[in-house]
Write a structure and sequence with these properties.
Blueprint (H helix, E strand, L loop, with lengths): L1 E5 L5 E5 L23 E2 L1 H6 L4 E8 L2 E7 L8 E6 L2 E5 L7 H9 L5 E3 L9 H8 L3 E4 L13 E4 L3 E5 L2 E5 L8 E5 L6 E5 L3 E2 L6 E2 L1 E3 L4 E2 L2 H11 L6 E4 L4 E2 L3 H17 L6
Length: about 270
C-alpha cells in the first residue's frame, strides 16, 4: 500500500495498491492533466531521488518562505508565519524531508496549518502528522480532499479567527472556499493570498482567475465581491503563492487592479 502523489499538481491520495486512474484535481478545468498522461510518484521516491530540497528564507520578521527546488508539482511557496506566540504554516508543499523538519522545529515548529484552496493541499496530512498540528480548510472545498485525516478541521462562514491578530477570510473566486490569511500589524498588515488574489509579473498589480493555466477569467461581479470582502482589512503588503510580493499600498493595488480587470471584461479599458 502506498500514498500516491500526482506529479502534475503534487496532491497526495490515501493509501492504495496502485495509483488512481486519474487525479480528480487535475481532471477539471482549473488544472490540467499532463499532455503525456497521468503519472504518479511517492514521498519515498522523491526523497530517494536526492533531486529535491527545500529552501527556507526569512522574508521579513515573522515571515519565512518555504520553496522546493527544483520545481515540484505546481511549484507554490508555503509560508511559516510567527505571530501571537504561534507558528502557522500558510499553504502547503509536497516535499518534506528530515532537514526541513529539523529547521522548522528550530524555528518553533508548527502549531497549525491553514490552506487557501485545493491546489495546495499537497501532503498536508503528512505535514500535520510530522508537527502534530491541525489543518484548517474551508467547508466549501471539502469535496477536493483526497486524503482523509482526523487532523483536518473544516471551518464555515466568511471568516475564522486563529488568534488575536491572525484570521482566515473566505473570498471565493478561484475556488468556492478560496481563503486568504490576514495578519494584523496596524496599517502595515499583511495579506497572504495564495493565488486567490494573484500578484502578477508587474508587482504593482494583482489579478483574479477561475483557471490560471487555462486562462479562464472570473466574472466581473465575483471580482467586485472579492474586493468588497477585503476592503475592511488593513494590509500594506501581499505575499502570493509564487514568491511574488506587493511591497506597499497593497490595499490600493487590489482596488485599482479590480477596476482595471472589470473594465477589461466590459470592453471599456482598451480598443482591439
Amino acid at each position: 500500500m502506498e500514498k500516491y502523489i500526482c506529479q502534475t499538481c503534487g496532491v497526495q491520495y490515501s493509501e492504495r495498491e496502485e495509483g488512481p486512474d486519474r487525479c480528480e484535481i487535475c481532471s477539471e478545468e482549473r488544472q490540467y492533466v499532463n499532455p503525456e498522461g497521468q503519472t504518479w510518484t511517492t514521498h519515498k521516491e522523491l526523497v530517494q531521488s536526492s533531486v529535491y530540497r527545500n529552501i527556507i528564507h526569512e522574508e521579513e520578521e515573522g515571515v519565512y518562505s518555504i520553496t522546493t527546488t527544483p520545481k515540484l508539482g505546481i511549484g507554490q511557496t508555503a509560508y511559516l508565519i510567527q505571530k501571537d506566540g504561534l507558528n502557522i504554516l500558510w499553504d502547503c508543499i509536497t516535499y518534506l524531508d528530515q532537514e526541513t523538519v529539523d529547521v522548522i522545529r528550530g524555528l518553533g515548529g508548527i502549531d497549525a496549518i491553514a490552506i487557501s484552496h485545493p491546489h495546495y493541499y499537497s501532503r498536508m496530512t503528512d505535514w500535520a502528522e510530522a508537527f502534530d498540528a491541525p489543518v484548517y480548510l474551508h467547508q466549501d472545498d471539502k469535496e477536493w480532499v483526497m486524503e482523509k485525516s482526523s487532523r483536518l478541521h473544516l471551518w464555515e462562514g466568511e471568516s475564522m479567527k486563529l488568534s488575536e491578530n491572525l484570521s482566515l477570510h473566505r473570498l471565493g473566486g478561484h475556488f468556492k472556499g478560496g481563503a486568504v490569511l490576514h495578519i494584523e500589524k496596524g496599517t502595515e498588515g499583511l495579506l497572504m493570498t495564495g493565488d486567490i488574489i494573484q500578484v502578477v509579473a508587474d508587482h504593482r498589480w494583482v489579478s483574479f482567475m477561475y483557471s490560471y493555466p487555462n486562462l479562464i477569467p472570473l466574472p466581473a461581479f465575483k471580482v467586485a465581491e472579492i474586493v468588497e470582502k477585503v476592503n475592511g482589512l488593513a494590509f500594506n503588503r501581499i505575499y502570493n503563492a509564487f514568491h511574488h510580493v506587493v511591497k506597499s499600498r497593497a490595499d490600493e493595488v487590489v482596488r485599482d487592479s479590480a477596476e482595471r480587470y472589470i473594465r477589461a471584461l466590459k470592453g471599456t479599458l482598451f480598443t482591439t
